[in-house]
Structure formats: structure tokens, C-alpha cells
Design brief:
The protein is of the alpha+beta class and about 170 residues long. The chain is built from four helices and seven strands; from the N terminus they run αββαβββββαα. The termini are far apart.
């Protein structure tokens, strides 16, 4: 199957073919005057592209329902073979109630400073998301500034902990 980009480039090369994208579905309508019906039939046959991606989480809980292990599997995992993690944060936008549903899980053996770093990283990635999704540079910069501030605090905490004598 051809990718949508390749199809739209092919369609743009045809003398009188225009694509009209429907935002709610990734299907499109085509206004056309093709000279060759076989070209039209081939175009339609390859035009509807569907790609499914799946992400699964497997959480091992102790007797108190606290996560002991978290494994994840994804069809598009860029780090093939690496499936164990210590924390997961999932946010889902509920457009009916205009609010966010959130699931945050971390294993009981995750170090506190790693959890703090994870939270800082989540804010940093949200800063990038705000910029890409809305173009709101002020909000993105404010979130990025917060990340730098929190990172500095964490570094100071870690340095102070190194200088503390061990507790008995």
C-alpha cells in the first residue's frame, strides 16, 4: 500500500485532481476529471490507508496493589527489546467533559530522585507538545523555564545529599 503522502503527491501531479481532507476521519473526497478510468480505479483502491498501532502495559502488583514491575509493549517501539520501566504517566483528554483523565504508576523500588526527574521530563515533553500543537511560544517557554528551575533544584538536592554524612 502507498502512504498518504505519496498518494497526495501523485494526485497533485495529475492535471485536475484535488484532494479535500475531512478532518474527523482520515478519509478524503476527490474532485477529478481523469482521462483514464484505470488510473482513477487504481488511485481509489490504494487511497484509504489505515495503520493501527498498539501499546500494552503489564503491571505486576504486590498484595497491597502497589506496582512491583511495569512492562510495556508497542508495535512501534523504537527501543526494540526494552520493555521494562519504573514509571508510566498517561493522560487522556475527555472532550465530552473537557477534562483530563490521568493514570500515573511507578514501582515501589523507583528512587525518589528518579521520580522527580521523570516528572520534570514529563513537563518538558508537554512544553514541546504545547509548541507543536498550539504554537503558543509563551506557554511553551514558561513550561521550559519551570523545567530548568526544577532541574536546578534537583541538582542542588543531590549535591546536598552527597555532602551529608551517612545516617545510621
Amino acid at each position: 500500500m502507498q502512504s498518504l503522502d505519496k498518494i497526495s503527491r501523485t494526485a497533485r501531479r495529475q492535471p485536475s485532481c484535488r484532494l479535500h481532507y475531512l478532518p474527523a476521519s482520515k478519509l478524503f473526497q476527490i474532485s477529478h476529471t481523469f482521462a483514464y478510468p484505470s488510473v482513477w480505479a487504481n488511485f481509489i483502491q490504494n487511497a484509504i490507508i489505515v495503520k493501527n498501532s498498539e501499546i500494552k502495559f503489564e503491571i505486576t502488583l504486590d498484595n497491597d496493589s502497589v506496582p512491583e514491575q511495569i512492562h510495556w509493549h508497542a508495535t512501534d517501539n523504537p527501543n526494540e527489546g526494552i520493555t521494562e520501566t519504573k514509571a508510566v504517566s498517561i493522560a487522556i483528554w475527555d472532550h465530552y467533559h473537557r477534562g483530563t483523565m490521568k493514570v500515573d504508576l511507578w514501582t515501589k523500588d523507583m528512587p525518589v530522585n528518579d521520580m522527580k526527574q521523570f516528572c520534570i521530563d514529563v513537563i518538558g515533553t508537554l512544553s514541546d507538545t504545547v509548541m507543536r500543537a498550539t504554537g503558543d511560544e509563551k506557554m511553551s517557554d514558561a513550561m521550559s523555564d519551570l523545567c530548568h528551575y526544577l532541574s536546578d533544584l534537583l541538582k542542588k538536592e543531590e549535591e546536598a545529599a552527597k555532602n551529608q554524612p551517612p545516617q545510621v
